[in-house]
Amino acid sequence: MTSAIRACFGVLALMATFVAGPTTAKTDDPDRLETFLEVTGFDVALESIRLSAESAPAMLGIETEDFGSEWTRLADEVFDTELMHDEAIDILSEALTDDLLDHAVDFYTSDLGRRLVAVENASHMDDDDELRQEAGQAIVAGLVQIGSPRLEELKRLNGATGSEDASVHAIQEVQVRFLMAAAAAGVIELRMEEEDLRESLKTQEGELRRGMQIAGLAGSAYTYQAFSDDEITAYADALENPTMQRVYELMNAVQFQIMSDRYEALAARLQGLQPSQEL
Q: Which end of the chain is more exposed for a tag (fewer CB within 10 A), N or C?
């Protein structure tokens, strides 16, 4: 499962539509929820949020090395796998419905679904992103050179798992909430108001969007390289199903909520590790 994220301002409204909209019952059986996390690979996607913490100090203009050995300990505590898992279960128990769960489980327990989740899980936990991107970009260049239709199917995959606009806005929102929390904790001195910070990040939106498109396509090309063109098309078809779209909207919303919560918690905990910095 790719890990596109929904924007913060839409999370509560989106949750409300999942709770109030469908007529089917909510899925609050712990065993069924655990099955959903496992077969979709969502449990591994949540674990991979910990890897994103490596980039957190850079948002504050600080090098990870400046924290010394304390950084690993702090990141492990804040991005505790069990804590994130329990938060996901709590949210899903209120928002996930039987029809959405059944639809996702049916696909991801198929032969194709199991194989897809296996490579996606491996990709989520691979911390050598630079190597993966280089290899993926080489694959993309080769597909462009031969005019392969596979390229468009890979783009369909990326588009079907989350709105590009929502992903861009979500990344910006994580940055804003992290920086504001760090400023409130006295970790940094923020010389602009929240509104000005948002406007500053908005000016970088075009570059962020282009970077995400390139990285996303390279990542998919690398991750799914062992699958046939027909299998890629079948996956894109499955992801574009309206019911699966709702599943991914919910998973993206949950993942963003957990990520933003953890980054705010991280900012508060940095106070004792790093002297104030100006931004």
A: C
pLDDT in tens, 89-113: 999 999 999 999 999 999 999 999 9
Q: For residue 59, give both structure tokens.
A: 């948002």
Nearest residue to 224 (alpha-carbon basis) of 122, 149, 147, 128: 122
Cβ atoms of 239 and 40 closer than 8 Å: no
pLDDT digits (tens, 9 = 90+) for 221-239: 999 999 999 999 999 999 9
Widest CA span in the chain? 55
Which alpha helices (DSSP H) does the chain contain, by range?
8-20, 30-40, 42-47, 49-52, 56-59, 70-78, 81-95, 98-108, 111-124, 129-146, 150-160, 164-184, 194-203, 205-223, 229-240, 242-269
Q: Any idea what DSSP says for residue 54? A: G
- Measured between its terminal Cα atoms, the distance across the chain in Å is 35
- Closest by alpha carbon to 73, among 276, 255, 266, 263? 266
